[in-house]
Amino acid sequence: EAGVAQSPRYKIIEKRQSVAFWCNPISGHATLYWYQQILGQGPKLLIQFQNNGVVDDSQLPKDRFSAERLKGVDSTLKIQPAKLEDSAVYLCASSLGTGDYEQYFGPGTRLTVT
Amino acid sequence: GQQVMQIPQYQHVQEGEDFTTYCNSSTTLSNIQWYKQRPGGHPVFLIQLVKSGEVKKQKRLTFQFGEAKKNSSLHITATQTTDVGTYFCAGPDGGTSYGKLTFGQGTILTVHP
After folding, report:
1. What's the pLDDT tens digit per position in B62-80?
2. B96 interaction partners in chain A (CB closer than 8 Å)
3. Do A100 and A2 contact (CB within 8 A), yes or no?
4. Cα distance from A75 to chain B (closest Cα, Å)?
5. Can you tell me the distance from the alpha carbon of B56 to that of A14, in angstroms, rounded to the nearest whole number?
């Protein structure tokens, strides 16, 4: 079974530039998550999708971050414009459903904003 | 909002010594999950505990869920260098129906050979 795929793996941009991350979840997983993990901290949920609908985006900085999950499969997360404090690893995860399901994480995208 | 705290933040042990990390939630949890993240890697699911007082074992790892379902622990017996990494606990936000997970800040385990 293929795991969660993410690209790119690394990205370096200057502040005020834009960036996009892509995620392909495990086949058949209805729920997709985007997390932000700052060095030395646990993952923080940015947005959670159930199929192609958003179930939680309460911690997503909506003035600069956006995410979509077209057709309920792949997802993209965009930051525009980026700030220095956005430097982090962005993790995508998926699970069979919401609730008490284990989450499968992708390798992450390490973003450096200079 | 819900808070999940872990202690200690760091633990350095000699290979063969035991290791324990503790997790405390500000709210009662329906379940708790544990993940391991190797250096440079991504979190990998280890286990889920659901019942009050539940104890589960995976080889040298023992997981416990407190009676009040607000705390949990992970104990590793006779650590090995392969145990190196950060161990996270995560609990669902009881205020949601969709199980939004809140992760602790993790315990970083270093094992000296």
Report:
1. 999 999 999 999 999 999 9
2. 56
3. no
4. 18
5. 47
